[in-house]
Amino acid sequence: MISPCKFEAEIKSIQPKPEIKDDLIYVGNKIVYEIVETGKNLIIYQYWCNEGRNICTEILQKE
């Protein structure tokens, strides 16, 4: 955890291998994510993607 709203993750393995060649998806790559919203059933976080040109948003639903 970098702060209460930011954390860093490292890619340890990729299963299955992506069909699209993406230089950002490789073992050992570290990505800083920022949690922007948490709710009863979801977590929304953002991170820089497309070689730092865009901010991507992902929504994880809790089960």
From TrEMBL:
This is Uncharacterized protein.
